[in-house]
Design brief:
Length: 125
């Protein structure tokens, strides 16, 4: 259950507070003619839990794929995502660690470049 709590808490925070670009959740259509830049979040549950003090700790990852029409903008967007999620204490006792950028922007050969960020999160219960 804690993995679902991590996913829903991170996604709710993202939807309520992110204003820089559109958010395209998996399965949503993307209009490449009007979407100049956007992000796509993907939650990855981590099969890793244990005891923390007198309770349990569950871990998860939110990967955010950042798309823009040139590599510099894609990487700058990933910088913004890192700042947005850095070391948060959110509701439901969910905490984020320092986000990690994954290398340089990749040319997708469709007019867009992709960079991505991994956000590690813990939930204590």
């Amino acid at each position: 259950m804690s993995s679902f709590i991590i996913k829903s808490t991170l996604e709710e925070y993202l939807v309520a507070n992110w204003t820089e670009t559109p958010i395209k959740f998996e399965g949503m259509p993307i209009d490449y003619s009007s979407d100049v830049s956007f992000i796509v979040p993907k939650y990855v549950g981590v099969a890793n839990s244990g005891f923390y003090g007198s309770g349990n700790q569950t871990n998860g990852q939110l990967q955010i794929f950042c798309y823009a029409q040139n590599p510099v903008l894609a990487y700058k967007l990933s910088d913004s995502v890192c700042s947005f999620f850095k070391c948060l204490s959110l509701s439901n006792d969910v905490h984020t660690l320092i986000p990690q950028q994954q290398g340089s922007a990749i040319n997708l050969d469709d007019g867009f470049f992709e960079a991505f960020v991994t956000i590690e999160a813990n939930c204590y219960s």
